[in-house]
């Protein structure tokens, strides 16, 4: 278990919350020199994966991913600790690097710069993700999702612990803007 604790300290060390681009775009030495030149592809635009050519698989991956992400934010603590908030922001930073669709990952990195993750509460995280999802939908020419319908659309069956999103305006999600 010591390796896990050491890794967690390394993961959070040196993170500057006021400089998101430093953490999305890899250091030039990392991008230019993969760990194993014979078996690795270089990082492109901060994303580890190449572009997905199969549009059907890409769409299916997107739907499954949004379902997972919405369910995750709807299960986030109502009053998270600073560590939990930091972990959620770090999750989205890493997600934007590791997502298996390279061009999607690059677009999501840009979205994180324009719309930094809100991790001060479950409500803020859920509304932030809904707004991010709608920004992606707009870019793709898809219809906008009503953010007050999140609980019913993304009910995981995990329990009755829900939030009342019908009483809030998605454009007025409160809380500090946290940048990874």
TrEMBL record:
SUPFAM superfamilies for this protein: FAD-dependent thiol oxidase
- Record-annotated membrane-spanning stretches: none
EC category? oxidoreductase
Q: Which reaction does it catalyse?
A: 2 R'C(R)SH + O2 = R'C(R)S-S(R)CR' + H2O2
- What's a single GO MF annotation on this record? flavin-dependent sulfhydryl oxidase activity
* Superkingdom classification of source: Eukaryota
Record carries keyword Disulfide bond: yes
- Keywords of the record: Disulfide bond, FAD, Flavoprotein, Oxidoreductase
One GO cellular component term of this record is: mitochondrion
The cofactors required by this protein are:
FAD
One Pfam short name: Evr1_Alr
Which EC number(s) are documented for this chain? Answer: 1.8.3.2
* Protein name per the record: Sulfhydryl oxidase
């Amino acid at each position: 278990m010591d390796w896990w604790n050491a890794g967690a300290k390394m993961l959070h060390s040196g993170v500057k919350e006021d400089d998101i681009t430093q953490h999305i775009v890899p250091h030039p030495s990392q991008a230019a020199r993969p760990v194993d030149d014979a078996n690795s592809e270089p990082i492109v635009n901060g994303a580890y994966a190449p572009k997905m050519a199969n549009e059907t698989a890409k769409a299916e991956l997107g739907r499954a991913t949004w379902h997972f992400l919405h369910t995750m934010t709807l299960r986030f603590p109502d009053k998270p600790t600073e560590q939990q908030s930091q972990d959620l922001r770090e999750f989205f930073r890493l997600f934007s690097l590791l997502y298996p669709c390279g061009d999607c990952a690059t677009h999501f990195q840009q979205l994180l710069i324009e719309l930094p993750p809100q991790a001060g509460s479950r409500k803020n995280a859920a509304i932030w993700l809904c707004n991010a999802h709608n920004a992606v939908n707009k870019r793709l020419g898809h219809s906008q999702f009503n953010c007050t319908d999140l609980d019913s659309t993304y009910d995981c069956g995990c329990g009755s612990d829900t939030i009342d999103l019908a009483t809030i305006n998605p454009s007025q999600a409160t809380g500090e803007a946290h940048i990874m």
